[in-house]
Amino acid sequence: MKIDLKNLTIQKAHESLKKGDFTAVELTQAYLNEIASKNKDINAYLEVFADVIEQAKKADQKIAEARKSKSDFSLLCGIPCGIKDNILIQGRIASSASKLLEDYHATYDATVIKKLKEQGVVFLGRLNMDEFAMGGSTENSAFGVTKNPHDLSRVAGGSSGGSAAAVAMQGALFTLGSDTGGSIRQPASFCGVVGLKPTYGAVSRYGVMAMGSSLDQIGPIANTVKDCETIFDVIKGKDIKDGTTISSDTYSTKMVGNKKPIIGVPKDFLKGDGIDKAVLEAFNKSLEDFKTKGYEIKDISLPNISYSLMVYYVLMPAEVSSNMARFDGVKYGLHKDGKTVIEDYFETRRAGFGKEVIRRILLGTYVLSSGYYDAYYNRANAVRVMITNDFLKAFESVDIIATPTAPSPAFKIGEKTNDPVAMYLEDIFTVTANLTGLAAVSLPCGIAEKDGKQLPIGLQLTARHGDEKTLFGAGKDFLGEN
Amino acid sequence: MITTQELDNLANLARIKLTDDDKKSLIKEFDSILTYVDQLKKVKVSLDTEGRVGAVKNVARPDKVVSTSAADREGLLNEAPDREADFIAVKKMIEQ
Q: In angstroms, how far is CA B70 from the centroid of its own chain?
């Protein structure tokens, strides 16, 4: 049976597996065929695991047992997925798309992986990314860029470019990515799929390579909001192994009841010519769509939001410089010899890290160094709290804050590589959710026509801490999912 | 804005060897990035603000030894670039 991957959802796949329309092996093979024909051009997958069919066979066994005992099998049993290369799966290579970890084999499972394994998912392979999650285009991968399935001359976005492209090219039914400043939402936006960055602490970071520990979150990328909700419900939860995780009652979510959530728009932040015309058009049309569906749209003010990118590019490199210190060529990964122990570090790190990683480590070292600590790090921390308070104040009168996900659709490969600040400006709408820890989702909301190609545009919705439910409701409404 | 000497100091602190070409491009990039983030100086802040992310509070685990299984230990040691028996080997650090 030819499986319609384009219109497949987790629920539909589960029902077909239940009815026997196809087996987990057949479903997995369908994805493997897509990967075989498309991955050489797109480069979403760094590795397709050799034992994928074996995994699918095990899932089919579980399904057969459930059928025999007339019981149900888990929703995710037999569902093929891809995993970003910075998430550890025991025994498999996890390289964070870096030469430093090219041959590193994970020695344990990340908590999110453990949870997915319990459900019986099929792990298809590991997905390309910007090296150590640093970048907005996947051009910083040590193993080649991931191309946008909608236009191979353009980037898939980053840093979870492989994760977004894999879903968009029907190379997985869902993927996991990581988001520190927009790395799930921006590539989801560029590739025309749905990407969720959960509330900080909602999903355990245990077993995920840390980039910015107060900013990172793991999240799902899929074709529908419902699928993202399904994955989120599986991977979320307090974890004794990650002291920053929250439980379901950490935040009391405001009960909206039967009324539709109120959507706030920071109008002042959407002025200026940094935003692509097609993006603004699609954004405004999206607001109109919400209005006809009965949502109230309000203007809101976020007085300090224009400083968020600057805050991010001080705090994030600071945390990066600390988190990257573990890579010294001693315990794991690449080792390059110097004349002394300390020289080993200098040689190993220069050889293993790419340009952007080195740039951010040095920037972080600078803002944390004595003489500059107050001027940069302390100051940025204080402004971070001010920005968070702006959002909390706005949430006294609205339930969702809407902006475009990115100021442009996918840009051309190589277009921004010579200007780091130009690349950083792509994060302008996404970093706030990481700085504040709020939940945010990117939804496909329109198309920009460039050079005869149709490039997806993303709409970003941000909600209160712990209020993913409101995002899922509004998202399903917006995309017409019933 | 940033001098070569300052960059050398940073590279030393970060334990990353930089070539002259590396330094040339980094100085330029640093200047454009610092010019951008320097705009933060315009904001009126209280530098005593305690950092936080939502309701997350700092926690510590009990000060107890958690044992590692033999299998886990083996897996960890296997990843070391230079392993000797149950040790990770490094160059001599202390002069006789």
A: 30
